[in-house]
Write a structure and sequence with these properties.
- The complex is a heterodimer.
- Chain A is an all-beta fold.
- Chain A has one domain (12-114): Rieske Iron-sulfur Protein.
- Chain A is built from no helices and 11 strands.
- In chain A, strands 2-10-9-5-4-3 form a 6-stranded antiparallel beta sheet, with no helix packed on it.
- In chain A, a hairpin with a 2-residue loop joins β4 and β5.
- The radius of gyration of chain A is 13 Å and the shape is globular.
- Chain B is an alpha/beta fold.
- Chain B has 24 helices and 39 strands.
- In chain B, the strands form 11 sheets. A 5-stranded parallel beta sheet of chain B has the order 3-2-1-7-19, with no helix packed on it. In chain B, strands 9-16-10-11-12 form a 5-stranded parallel beta sheet, covered by helices on one side.
- The longest helix of chain B is centred in the C-terminal third of the chain and has 18 residues, at 710-727.
- Chain B is globular.
- The chains are: A mainly beta, B alpha/beta.
- At the A-B interface, β3, β4, β6 and β7 of A face α14 of B.
- The structure holds siroheme, flavin-adenine dinucleotide (FAD), iron/sulfur cluster (SF4) and FE2/S2 (inorganic) cluster.
- Siroheme binds next to β33 of chain B.
Chain lengths: 115, 832
């Protein structure tokens, strides 16, 4: 319903800065983004854990639930669908999703903000 | 009538359950539903409201599920019902209805004494109430609660959690007068006294007085005394919210509430009432279970069913104070000719009473204080034959109360009206675990107190409960350990490809990480292993609520030189860390940012410190008392042994953390019997105790062997630890491991003393490998640029510190800025 404002792509790092299944945090246009490189591709979500308010999601454990690529918050272990940002344990809770891609060995992120 | 416009007034627990139940029965959407809600947030779990003060967020209490064809108007209370035109009006509009359901709940009763309007006087009903209490409590010291019932005690506990000293004023001569009898109330009071909550019984509050700042300052009591209070919670009972019905000319119950019949319909055939606002056949019920029953009845009726109110279960259990209190059925023995059996043990502080029919054959009700383990089974047996002899039932461990003996009609889950028959039917249909039973029958999904009974019923039906670790592995931790060991697997990806499925999760990955570490598969942050580590192992430090970390250097046995103390002080000062002496005889430094961790450890390692593994499921500390070196009673060098043991087992990864202590004589100043392995000196050697812990379910360690030489002692501990690491379940401490072991302590003795399984040589060798291959994890990180590069704030801005981590100074030290919610270190049993 809300118009989606798209921004431009920001180069964050080279792909070899990422380890498979282990997140890193990045600062993109002043927003803390958690970046993951998994067997299902690159994913970017807000680094802020919506349940606790702490900026820690980049330190969570990557995995899968019923085929869905997931991330578990390191603080209280709520699990999020990396594709949609939806929390699979708490209905109605979600973390913002951003776009991520790799071009010529460079990882790029584009913020997606509802507004 | 089974379709049209339906308006629901109130989106509380029962209003929400009603909408869920209707949607389940009316999937076609014959009813278009509008829910008018006074509160600004959708339905939440009021029963668990107090958990908010334990750090459970408002989101976690959410009960609301959106449904198609249901519109929810938050913050839009109904103001009037016009029965003639069939419209409900709010401040912003009118809603036409073909059927109207009132689910407005109750409001807190505030006794008419002067001063209740003062700032600092609160009620305890909504999340907003609790948020206001928390905000006002900051900086205040003394609180009081008016009302010593279930709700009043919950509120008192909340004030304690907020750091206020607390008084409770109760008009009746005992606490929880509705639920417990005089003797039970007396026992309960002793527990409440121990918590530091002062009780004033048999007195009324006559006035609330203000202080110089205009806020509340004191309560005046009917006995002429006064108590200080700068925050007051009124929890003196509830009254049904029946104003809308009253104004619309609908009949009310004798003590208020919207009068309905057993079908929950009012005198107007289009209007129904459910939950606490309904007076079913004249009686209002202030609990959620009967409320849910009314929701189900009306949902059924609206789709043409013939359900009637089944009668109320008024069983209650005190939550959150850490005291077991339960009351069920005819707890006060009001049935004609009934008998009661009571059991009082002042030493263990257990009181129990069963109320039986005049022929002593049928259980009518009961009260339990101090130990409510028999509660689920007893409650389910009310109205039926006793599941065992009364004394066996009352035995403090509840040993006689086995759910397997219940008849099919017994109600196992009263919150959701599920009988044993329903559970057995679900099991016969293939439900093989508690999660399955929850989703098939709803049993266990509300207060959770019936979950242990669900397990017993699965056992009784002969369903072997799955030991599968998670959806990715059908194996238990122990089976995985064997596979990893025997097949020599070194990576998670190979293990999951060959023996599991999917990509793993936050349950199986740390388990495998721990198994690999126990088997000595290299540094925990190397290669793929790094991605398996749990939160704290991720950066070899303990994650705090604000995203910063704590640092705990090892201080073996608690013995430390002045030079090293000074280094810790200097490091804390230079990095501006909060310092605290821990319960494990060492020093914790808090508030470090990720990128500071290597710099901090560089300084600590250079001064001779090493990792204390406070972050790992590993050996934590071996505490010591000062022992014979100084103490006039000591008979052995307890510090020397503690240091040696801590150095021997440091870095040993296990299914859960491991703790130990050594005391220099039987006075036991090191509290060794509360440890996984504890040692107490004797005139001639050492006594070894195993399987103790503090924490969530405290347990004293059992005496395992006596008068051992130091060498024999170490051999036994070596074997004990390796056998535990190989065979325990995920997150199972040694106490639970021994309790679950077939044959218990005797079996353990036969394996590690008598070598009945021929394992000892192997266990000894495994420990020898651990001891010889130990190296400090932190030193290894500092020596390796590849591991170090992980410790940055942002991959694209390593020089920018995380701006969300900020501090304020309190008591001369930095503390996290932005709220000090209590931390939950482990959930008490009564919560889900
Ligand atoms: C720092 C300390 C409190 C203090 O300020 O004194 C502490 C702090 C924590 N405890 Fe503890 N416990 C501390 C002594 C204890 C003790 C007392 C003792 O060891 O003598 C106990 C009860 C004894 C016992 O464990 O049997 C204790 C029982 C727990 C438990 C419950 C364990 C249980 O079996 O029920 C947990 C939860 C868990 O481990 O799953 C826990 C978990 C934690 C964690 C690790 C929670 C976490 O994951 O973040 C806390 C980490 C704080 C940090 O960042 O450093 N802590 N904790 C103590 C550190 C001792 C040390 O030097 O290592
Ligand atoms: C701290 C606490 C602990 C409790 N513990 C237990 C327990 O352990 N066990 C147990 O069984 N019960 C317990 N209860 C009671 C339990 O919460 C209630 O029985 C249950 O919530 C009743 O549900 P309800 O939907 O009838 O009322 P509520 O949950 O109160 O919901 C009624 C809703 O209707 C709204 N409303 C009122 N008037 C209007 C209007 N005119 N227009 C629109 N909306 C309106 C209210 O704002 C409210 O949101 C506890 C209650 C509290 C406060
Ligand atoms: S346990 Fe014994 S030796 Fe140790 S300090 Fe206490 S009294 Fe002294
Ligand atoms: S008895 Fe409350 S959930 Fe079953």
């Amino acid at each position: 319903m809300n118009p989606t404002m798209t921004r431009s792509w920001t180069t964050v790092c080279t792909l070899d800065h990422l380890d498979p299944d282990r997140g890193v945090a990045a600062l993109v246009d002043g927003v803390q983004v958690a970046l993951f490189w998994t067997a299902d591709g690159l994913f970017a979500i807000d680094n802020r854990d919506p349940v606790s308010g702490a900026y820690v999601l980049s330190r969570g454990i990557v995995g899968s639930r019923g085929g869905v690529p997931t991330l578990a918050s390191p603080l209280h272990k709520q699990v999020y669908d990396l594709r949609s940002g939806d929390c699979l344990d708490l209905p109605g809770v979600a973390v913002a999703r951003h776009d991520a891609r790799c071009r010529n060995g460079l990882v790029e992120v584009r913020l997606r903000q509802e507004g | 009538m089974s379709g049209g416009e339906l308006v629901v007034i109130g989106n509380g627990m029962v209003g929400q359950r009603f909408v869920d139940a209707l949607r389940a029965r009316d999937p076609e959407g014959g009813w278009r539903v509008t829910v008018l809600a006074e509160e600004d947030r959708p339905a939440y779990d009021r029963v668990r409201l107090s958990a908010y003060f334990d750090g459970v967020s408002a989101d976690e209490l959410n009960l609301h599920t959106p449904h198609e064809g249901v519109r929810l108007r938050l913050g839009e209370p109904a103001i009037a019902v016009d029965r003639e035109r069939r419209v409900v009006s709010t401040a912003v509009g009118e809603y036409q209805y073909d059927a109207l359901v009132l689910a407005t709940g109750s409001y807190p009763f505030v006794p008419p004494v002067p001063g209740t309007e003062l700032p600092g006087v609160f009620v305890y009903r909504t999340l907003d109430d609790l948020a206001a209490i928390r905000a006002y409590a900051g900086g205040r010291r003394v609180g009081a609660v008016i009302g010593g019932g279930l709700l009043g005690l919950e509120a008192a506990n909340a004030l304690r959690l907020l750091g206020l000293s607390t008084d409770v004023v109760e008009f009746a001569p005992r606490l929880m007068p509705v639920q417990v009898d005089q003797a039970g109330g007396a026992m309960l009071r002793r527990y409440v006294d121990d918590l530091g909550v002062r009780t004033h019984l048999g007195v009324a509050t006559t006035a609330i007085r203000s202080g110089p700042d205009g806020g509340v300052a004191a309560l005046e009591l009917s006995d002429g005394t006064a108590i200080d209070a700068d925050l007051v919670v009124v929890a003196a009972g509830i009254r049904p919210r029946d104003q809308l019905a009253r104004d619309a000319g609908l009949p009310l119950g004798p003590r208020g509430g919207v009068l309905v019949d057993a079908t929950c319909r009012t005198a107007d055939e289009r209007i129904w009432a459910i939950g606490e606002c309904a007076a079913v056949d004249g009686t209002c019920h202030g609990l959620v279970a009967p409320g849910y029953a009314t929701a189900e009845v009306v949902a059924d009726r609206l789709v043409g069913g013939a359900a009637t109110f089944p009668g109320a279960d008024t069983a209650t259990k005190l939550k959150l104070l850490g005291v077991d209190v339960a009351s069920f059925g005819d707890a006060h023995g009001t049935t004609e000719g009934c008998l009661d059996v009571t059991f009082t043990d002042p030493a263990t502080r257990v009181y129990a009473k069963l109320v039986l029919s005049d022929d002593a054959r049928t259980l009518l009700g009961g009260v339990l204080v101090g130990d409510a383990s028999a509660y689920p089974t007893l409650r389910a047996s009310v109205g039926g034959p006793l599941p065992a002899a009364p004394l066996a039932l009352l035995a403090p461990d509840g040993g006689g109360a086995d759910a397997g003996a219940l008849p099919a009609t017994a109600q196992v889950c009263s919150c959701n009206a599920v009988t044993r028959g329903d559970v057995d039917a679900a099991i016969a249909d293939g439900c093989a675990d508690v999660a399955g039973l929850k989703s098939c029958t709803r049993a266990g999904t509300s207060c959770g107190s019936c979950v242990p009974m669900l397990k017993q019923l699965l056992d009784a039906a002969g369903v072997a409960q799955s030991s599968a670790l998670c959806e990715h592995f059908d194996l238990s931790r122990r089976e995985l350990f064997e596979i990893v060991q025997v097949r020599g697997i070194h990576t998670f990806s190979r293990l999951v490809a060959e023996h599991g499925r999917g990509r793993g999760c936050d349950i199986c990955k740390p388990v495998v990480a721990s198994i690999l570490a126990s088997l000595g598969a290299g540094h925990v942050l190397d290669g793929e292993q790094a991605s398996l580590q749990d939160t704290n192992d991720h950066f070899l430090a303990n994650l705090q609520r604000d995203g910063s970390y704590s640092v705990v250097p090892r201080i073996p046995g608690g013995e430390i030189t002045p030079e090293k103390l000074i280094v810790i002080g200097e490091v804390a000062r230079d990095f501006q860390l909060y310092t605290k002496i821990t319960g494990g005889q060492r020093i914790d430094l808090f508030g470090a940012r990720v990128e500071q961790l290597p710099q901090i450890w560089r300084r600590l390692v250079d001064a001779g410190f090493e990792s204390g593994h406070a972050y790992g499921k590993a050996l934590r500390t071996v505490k010591s008392c000062v022992g014979e070196t100084w103490c006039r009673y000591g008979v052995q060098d307890s510090v020397g042994l503690a240091v040696a043991l801590e150095l021997r087992y440091r870095g040993l990864r296990a299914p859960h953390k491991l703790k130990s202590a050594v005391s220099g004589c039987a006075r036991e100043c090191a509290e060794a019997r509360s440890k996984d392995f504890g040692i107490i000196a004797t005139e001639t050697g050492w006594n070894l105790y195993v399987g103790g812990n503090g924490g969530f379910r405290p347990r004293h360690a059992d005496l395992f062997a006596t008068d051992l030489s130091t060498e024999a002692l170490v051999t036994l501990i070596d074997r004990f630890l390796i056998y535990y690491i190989r065979t325990a379940d995920r997150l199972q401490r040694t106490a639970g491991w021994i309790e679950a072991m077939e044959g218990g302590l005797d079996h353990l003795r036969s394996v590690i003393v008598d070598d009945s399984l021929g394992l000892c040589a192997d266990l000894d060798a495994a420990m020898a490998r651990h001891v010889s291959s130990y190296s400090d994890e932190w030193r290894d990180v500092l020596d390796d640029p590849d591991r170090l590069r992980r410790y940055t704030s942002f991959v694209n801005a390593p020089e920018v510190p995380d701006p969300s981590i900020t501090f304020v100074r309190e008591r001369g030290q930095p503390m996290p800025a932005g709220g000090t919610q209590p931390i939950t270190l482990g959930l008490p049993e009564v919560r889900r």
